[in-house]
Amino acid sequence: MAGVFINYRTGDGTEAAVLLDEQLKGVFGPENVFRDRRGTAPGEHFPPHLWRTLESCTVLLVLIGRNWLSLCDDTGRRRIDVPGDYVHDEICAALTWRRTVIPVLIDGAALPTEKELPEGIAELTERQFMHLRVPYAHLDLPVITDELRKHVPVSPSPATPAAGGSPQMSGFTFGDGNAVNFGSGGAASYTRSAVSHGGTAIYNENADSKSDGKSDGTNGGTS
Fold this sequence. Notes:
This protein has 223 residues and is an alpha/beta fold. 24% of the residues lie in helices and 17% in strands. It has 5 helices and 10 strands; from the N terminus they run E-H-E-H-H-E-H-E-E-H-E-E-E-E-E. The strands form 3 sheets. The protein has a 5-stranded parallel beta sheet, with helices on both faces. Strands 8-10-9 form a 3-stranded antiparallel beta sheet, with no helix packed on it. Helix 1 packs across helix 5 (137-148). The radius of gyration is 17 Å and the shape is globular.
C-alpha cells in the first residue's frame, strides 16, 4: 500500500472520515486508502497492522473538527495528551518519517496553535491545510482529491473517472508502550475551493464559497 491514511478523532470527524474514505477509495482504490473501521479485519492484531499501514502510506490526512483539541477522557485530561492516544501517535510518526501531512479543517474549525499542541506534534501548525465542509462535500472533496493525485497513483479500476470527468463520490516508540522498528524509517475570495491560502476562513453556509481574511500570520501561521 502506498496511499492515504485517514487520521481522525472519534466523536469529532467520524462523518467526514467516512465521506473522505468513500470518495478516495473510488479514485485511488480501497487498497490505497486506510480508515481504521474499514481497513482492519475482525480479529486482526490491530497495533502492528496500524503502524505497518501508516509507514507504507505517502500522505496522512489529519481531520480536525471544532472539538478535536478539547475532547477529554474520563479523568478530564485532553485525549491528545494521553499516552497511547492513537491520533497523537499517528501524527507524530508521520511527521517523524517525513510523510506528507495535510491538516483538513472540518466545517470551519481552526488549526490549533503551536502552544496548544503537544511538543511532539507542534510541527503540524507548519503544514498547509485544506478545508472540508460536510454540507458542501460535493464541492470540497474533488479539490482534496485533485491535491492527492500529486502524491498517490490513481487506481486503474473501472471506478476511476474518465478524463475530464468529476471524481466519484463514493524504530519508533508510542505512548502506549508499543515499540515499532521499521526498515525505513490582502483579502481574497475563493469560490468552490477547499484550499486555504493563509488566514482565517470565514464561511457563508448559504453560498458555495468562502472568504479568506488576513489573520495574525499563523501558518506562516495557521492551518
